[in-house]
Design a protein that fits this description.
By secondary structure, the chain is α/β, with parallel strands linked by helices. The protein has one domain (about 1-260): Rossmann fold. The chain is about 40% helix and about 15% strand. It has helices spanning about 40-45, 70-85, 95-105, 135-145, 145-155, 165-175, 180-190, 215-225, 240-245, 245-260, and strands at about 1-5, 10-20, 25, 50-55, 90-95, 110-120, 205-210, 230-235. An eight-stranded mixed β-sheet has the order 1-2-4-3-5-6-7-8, sandwiched between helices. The chain starts with a strand and ends in a 7-residue tail after the last helix.
Length: about 260
């Protein structure tokens, strides 16, 4: 795990980095962390410079207060990439990280060579989510972070708390403070990226698990139809954490999209 100063807040910015080649940036979602990409980093490092930030308030940055706006998350990721002298990159965002990726691509479209939006949508309020954001906010205040991530995290897997990767998700989520968890819910609730979709003209891949209870089909359809140059990949038998549930299938689909930049592609 490496650390560099964040150009915006002048506090250490934690991230994972491995490999060499074109840059591939992986942005995690709500109460996640860079460690959730361990298998993907190992898989793609032979052909890519893989960079996985811990978002402010999460993972190795859990001692920070996380922001309450998606734009601030995006600028924090961009500050890290600037610090690392990464000028062009493929950008993958999962869940809330997919909102951050859309915002980052809107800010610097000339630097994002390809965009992967996974288990996410263009509207932060997440219509038809397993529960409204306000309910999550109320239960978080009452139950605390540990119980909240245990409960919400179980909805991200087809097999609930028995799902492959659930223990990792739960352990990462417990590191965040209640203040950071509440701020991230506010960030999502206040974000709407629908108007910006048509301006994201780089090649894009939309990935969705067919059992995802956080982002339902209308959100996914809005991305697929709203982006100028988008492919769609639906992973059967998975939920919101498809890259942990079926990593081989997920990596195969991503490698196909990356095409000639992947060894053997």
């Amino acid at each position: 795990m490496a650390a560099r100063p964040d150009a915006l807040s002048a506090v250490p910015q934690s991230y994972r980095r491995a490999g060499s080649g074109p840059a591939l940036v992986l942005v995690h979602g709500y109460l996640g962390g860079a460690d959730q990409w361990h298998d993907m980093i190992a898989h793609f490092a032979p052909g890519f410079d893989v960079i996985a930030p811990d978002l402010p308030g999460c993972g190795g940055n859990a001692d920070q207060q996380g922001p309450d706006r998606i734009g601030d998350f995006a600028r924090a990721v961009l500050a890290l990439l600037d610090d690392l002298d990464v000028t062009e990159f493929t950008l993958l965002g999962h869940s809330m990280g997919g909102m951050i990726a859309q915002e980052l691509a809107r800010l610097v479209p000339h630097r994002v060579t390809r965009l992967v939006l996974y288990g996410t949508g263009p509207l932060g309020m997440m219509p038809d989510r397993f529960e409204p954001i306000e309910t999550s906010r109320e239960r978080l205040r009452a139950d605390g972070v540990a119980e909240t991530i245990a409960r919400i995290g179980a909805t991200w897997f087809r097999q609930g708390s028995a799902g492959r990767g659930y223990d990792l998700v739960a352990s990462l989520g417990r590191r965040a403070s209640t203040a950071t968890a509440l701020a991230a819910l506010d960030a999502m609730a206040h974000w709407d990226g629908r108007a910006a979709l048509s301006g994201l003209t780089m090649p894009a891949l939309v990935i969705w698990g067919d059992g995802d209870r956080s982002y339902r089909w209308p959100q996914v359809q809005a991305l697929w139809e709203g982006l100028a140059d988008a492919r769609l990949a639906v992973l059967p038998g998975t939920a919101h954490a498809a890259h942990l549930e079926k990593p081989m299938l997920f990596n195969m689909l991503l490698a196909d999209f990356l095409g000639g930049d992947q060894p053997g592609g």
